[in-house]
C-alpha cells in the first residue's frame, strides 16, 4: 500500500497528516491562503515531503489518495459570505422559506434565548425575494402529476433570474421527492438558456418530506456548490501536475469521504467534514486509549466544533442546523459556533462584550499577525495573557507582535469598557471559554447525557489553550490533548483514516405495521444506487458494508428518531424489531414512559449508508518512560501568564519534545508544542501517557478523587 494523506483546510491554518505505507505518521501545519486555498494545500504537501526527505513529485507518485476536508464552505455559510442564488419553487409556496414554519424563531437557539420570547427574531433570509420565483406545476403526495409544468412560464422565470446575474439556481418543488420529473425538466430548461449555470435539485440533494427544510438544504447547497466545484477541479489539476497518482477525496458530514468529482453535486454534505474527520480520529485513538464516551472538540481559526462519541460509536443525526436554518444531511452530530482562535472580540450597543462569530481568518488575520488586521481576536488575547509565545506560532514560522495585539485590545475593548488591556484580554478569554462551555452543555446535557461520564478530546490550533477551562465549565473530569506526531493536525489525521461513506435516502411515509414488500423495494433501490456509486470513487476498497435505517416518529409529532433495520429479505417480525428499537431509543432520549404507541408510529424516511472500507492502519508509536514523574528537565522557560483571578503568575513553560511517558505537570503551566500551546490551569494536573498525549485532570476530577479519599 502507498501513502495516504489527510488535509484539513481551515479558515486560518491548513493541517496535513501523512500515513506512510508502513504506518508511520508525519504532520505539517501552514497558514491557509485565501482566496486560493489550494496554494496552502500544496504548501502542506511540500512540508510533508520535507519531513520524509522526499521531493513532492516522488511523494505524490506513491500516494494512493488524498482525503481533503475544508471548513471554508461552513465558514462561508456561518458568516453569510456566500453569493446570491436563484430559487424556483411551486406556485403558491415561495414564501415558505421566509415563513420558516416558525422554526426560525427557535432552531439553534440556546435555552435562555428560547425563554426570552420578546427578544426572539428570525435570522436573515437566505435568498433575496427578487430571486425567489414560482412556476405553475403540481405533483401530489403519491407522485401523480396533477398540473403539468408550464414550460413557457418557466422559461420566462429563468430568464428573469439569470438577468440578475446569478450563476446558480436551486430548484425545490412540492412533493418532488416522490416524483422528480418536473425538477429535472426545469434543469434542462435552465441549461437551454445557459449550460454553465450551476443547478441543484431538491430531489437529488434532499429527497425528504417537509418543504421548508428541503428548500433551505437545497438553497445552501447551491450557494456553496459552484465555489466548491471550481476549487476542487483546480486543486486536483495542480496535484496531477505535481505527480499525484491516486485519487482526491473530500470529507463529508457523514464521517466518510467521497470522490472530489462528485462532491459539488451534494456540496452541503461537505460542510461538517472537518470535525467529522476529528470525530473519526477520536474513535481510532480511543481504541488505543480505552475511552468509550468522548466529547470531540476542535477550536480552529474560525469555528469551534463539538461532537459526541457514546459507547465507542459516533452519535449520528439525520439533520443539522446552520444559522437557524435546518439542513437535511445525514451527519455525525456536530455543532458549530463562530468562536475560533481568530474570532473577533467586539462590543454591542449595550456595552456587552462578544467574541465571534466573525473571524479575522488567515487574511488579514489577528492584529498580532501584522498583516493589516486591526480587530482584536482570541489569538491576540492569548498572546497578551502570556499563553502564546512571543517568538511566534508554528515553531516561529508565523511571527507575531504583542504590541499590535495590545493596541487592538486597548482601542477596541479596554478603553470603551474602562478596563486595562490585561483585564480586557482576560475578559475575552473568559467569554470564549463560557460560550464554548455553553455549546458543550447543549450537546451533552440537553441530549440526556451526564458530562461526568465523558472525556473531552481537544484538538485544533487553539483547542489546547482553552480545553481545560471549557471542560471544567461543564463538569468533565478529564481532557485528552492528542499530541505525538499529529499534534494540532488531529482532524487531518481523522481524514486520513476515514473510509468512503455514501448515503442515499428517500421519504416514503407509512404507518405501523410497515409493508415488508414496499419497505424491501425502497431499500433495494437505495442499496443499488449506493453500490453503483461506490464503483465511481476511484479507490480500491477492502470491502463494502451496507447499513439500513428508518427515521420513525410517534403520531402527532414532528421529529424522528433513527433506528437500524436488518439486512436481507424483510418480514413483518423483522420490521417490528426495528419499531421496538425505535421505542427503546425514544425512551432513552426522552425518558421512560414518554412514548405513546397508541398515537401510532410512522416510518418517514428510508436510508442506506454504505461504507467502503479503506483499511488504513496507522502506527501509534510509544514514548519512553520518564525516569521520574518530575518534568523539571523539560522546562523551556518561565514567563508571566494570566489564567484567572490571580492575575499574572510566574509560570513554567514545558517543551513537549522533552517530555516522556509518566511525566506529571502541575498547573499553572504551559506545554509548548511547535504547532499549539496547551494550558494546564492552576489546581489541575497534566499527565503524559504512553502515546505522548497530555491527559489533564480538571478540578472536577480532583474534587471527585478527594471525595473518594475522604469516604475511604
UniProtKB/TrEMBL annotation:
Assigned keywords, A-Z: Hydrolase
Record domain Acetophenone carboxylase-like C-terminal: where: 520-691
Record InterPro entries: ACX-like_C (IPR049517), Hydant_A_N (IPR008040), Hydantoinase_A (IPR002821), Oxoprolinase-like (IPR045079)
Gene Ontology CC terms: cytosol
Keyword Hydrolase attached: yes
EC class: hydrolase
Annotated ranges, domain Hydantoinase A/oxoprolinase: 214-501
GO molecular-function terms, A-Z: 5-oxoprolinase (ATP-hydrolyzing) activity
EC number: 3.5.2.9
Protein name: 5-oxoprolinase (ATP-hydrolyzing)
Organism: Sphingobium chlorophenolicum
Lineage per the UniProt record: Bacteria, Pseudomonadati, Pseudomonadota, Alphaproteobacteria, Sphingomonadales
Amino acid at each position: 500500500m502507498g501513502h495516504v494523506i489527510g488535509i484539513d483546510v481551515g479558515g486560518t491554518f491548513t493541517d496535513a497528516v501523512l500515513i506512510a505505507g508502513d504506518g508511520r505518521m508525519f504532520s505539517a501545519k501552514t497558514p491557509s491562503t485565501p482566496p486560493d486555498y489550494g496554494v496552502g494545500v500544496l504548501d502542506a504537501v511540500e512540508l510533508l515531503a520535507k519531513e520524509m526527505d522526499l521531493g513532492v513529485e516522488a511523494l505524490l507518485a506513491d500516494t494512493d489518495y488524498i482525503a481533503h476536508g475544508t471548513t471554508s464552505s461552513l465558514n462561508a455559510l456561518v458568516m453569510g459570505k456566500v453569493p446570491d442564488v436563484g430559487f424556483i419553487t411551486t406556485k403558491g409556496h415561495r414564501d415558505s422559506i421566509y415563513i420558516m414554519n416558525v422554526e426560525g424563531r427557535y432552531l439553534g437557539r440556546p435555552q435562555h434565548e428560547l425563554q426570552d420570547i420578546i427578544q426572539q427574531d428570525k435570522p436573515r433570509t437566505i435568498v433575496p425575494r427578487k430571486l425567489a420565483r414560482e412556476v405553475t406545476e403540481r405533483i401530489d403526495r403519491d407522485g401523480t402529476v396533477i398540473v403539468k409544468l408550464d414550460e413557457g412560464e418557466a422559461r420566462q422565470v429563468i430568464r428573469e433570474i439569470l438577468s440578475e446575474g446569478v450563476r446558480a439556481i436551486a430548484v425545490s418543488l412540492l412533493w418532488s421527492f416522490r416524483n422528480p420529473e418536473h425538477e429535472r425538466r426545469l434543469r434542462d430548461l435552465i441549461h437551454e438558456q445557459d449550460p454553465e449555470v450551476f443547478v441543484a435539485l431538491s430531489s437529488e440533494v434532499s429527497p425528504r418530506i417537509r418543504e421548508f427544510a428541503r428548500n433551505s438544504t437545497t438553497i445552501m447547497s447551491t450557494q456553496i456548490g459552484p465555489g466548491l466545484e471550481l476549487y476542487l477541479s483546480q486543486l486536483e489539476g495542480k496535484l496531477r501536475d505535481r505527480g499525484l497518482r491516486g485519487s482526491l477525496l473530500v470529507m463529508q458530514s457523514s464521517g466518510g469521504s467521497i470522490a472530489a468529482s462528485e462532491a459539488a453535486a451534494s456540496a452541503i454534505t461537505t460542510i461538517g467534514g472537518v470535525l467529522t474527520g476529528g470525530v473519526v480520529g477520536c474513535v481510532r485513538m480511543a481504541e488505543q486509549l480505552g475511552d468509550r464516551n468522548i466529547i470531540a472538540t476542535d477550536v480552529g481559526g474560525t469555528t469551534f466544533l463539538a461532537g459526541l462519541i457514546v459507547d465507542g460509536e459516533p452519535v449520528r443525526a439525520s439533520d443539522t442546523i446552520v444559522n437557524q436554518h435546518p439542513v437535511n444531511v445525514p451527519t455525525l452530530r456536530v455543532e458549530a459556533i463562530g468562536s475560533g482562535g481568530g474570532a473577533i472580540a467586539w462590543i454591542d450597543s449595550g456595552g456587552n462584550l462578544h467574541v465571534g462569530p466573525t473571524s479575522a481568518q488567515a487574511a488579514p488575520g489577528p492584529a498580532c499577525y501584522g498583516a493589516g488586521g486591526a480587530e482584536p481576536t482570541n489569538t491576540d488575547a492569548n498572546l497578551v495573557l502570556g499563553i502564546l509565545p512571543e517568538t511566534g506560532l508554528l515553531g516561529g514560522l508565523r511571527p507575531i507582535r504583542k504590541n499590535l495585539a495590545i493596541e487592538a485590545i486597548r482601542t477596541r475593548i479596554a478603553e470603551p469598557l474602562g478596563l486595562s488591556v490585561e483585564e480586557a484580554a482576560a475578559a475575552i478569554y473568559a467569554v470564549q471559554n463560557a460560550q464554548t462551555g455553553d455549546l458543550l452543555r447543549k450537546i451533552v446535557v440537553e441530549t440526556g447525557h451526564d458530562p461526568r461520564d465523558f472525556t473531552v478530546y481537544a484538538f485544533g490550533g487553539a483547542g489546547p489553550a482553552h480545553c481545560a477551562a471549557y471542560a471544567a465549565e461543564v463538569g468533565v473530569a478529564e481532557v485528552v490533548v492528542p499530541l505525538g506526531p499529529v499534534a494540532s493536525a488531529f482532524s487531518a489525521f481523522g481524514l486520513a483514516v476515514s473510509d468512503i461513506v455514501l448515503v442515499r435516502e428517500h421519504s416514503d411515509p407509512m404507518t405501523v405495521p410497515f409493508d415488508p414488500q414496499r419497505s424491501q423495494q425502497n431499500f433495494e433501490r437505495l442499496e443499488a444506487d449506493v453500490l453503483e456509486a461506490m464503483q465511481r470513487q476511484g479507490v480500491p476498497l477492502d470491502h463494502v458494508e451496507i447499513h439500513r435505517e428508518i427515521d420513525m416518529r410517534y403520531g402527532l409529532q414532528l421529529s424522528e428518531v433513527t433506528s437500524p433495520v436488518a439486512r436481507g429479505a424483510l418480514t413483518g417480525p423483522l420490521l417490528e424489531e426495528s419499531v421496538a428499537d425505535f421505542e427503546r431509543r425514544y425512551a432513552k432520549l426522552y425518558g421512560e414512559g414518554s412514548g405513546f404507541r397508541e398515537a401510532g408510529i410512522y416510518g418517514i424516511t428510508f436510508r442506506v449508508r454504505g461504507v467502503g472500507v479503506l483499511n488504513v492502519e496507522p502506527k501509534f508509536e510509544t514514548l519512553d518512560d520518564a525516569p521520574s514523574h518530575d518534568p523539571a528537565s523539560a522546562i523551556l522557560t518561565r514567563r508571566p501568564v494570566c489564567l484567572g483571578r490571580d492575575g499574572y503568575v510566574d509560570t513554567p513553560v514545558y517543551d513537549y519534545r522533552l517530555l516522556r511517558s509518566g511525566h506529571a505537570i502541575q498547573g499553572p503551566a504551559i506545554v509548548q508544542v511547535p504547532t499549539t500551546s496547551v494550558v494546564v490551569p492552576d489546581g489541575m494536573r497534566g499527565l503524559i501517557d504512553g502515546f505522548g498525549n497530555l491527559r489533564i485532570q480538571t478540578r472536577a476530577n480532583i474534587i471527585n478523587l478527594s471525595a473518594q479519599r475522604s469516604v475511604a
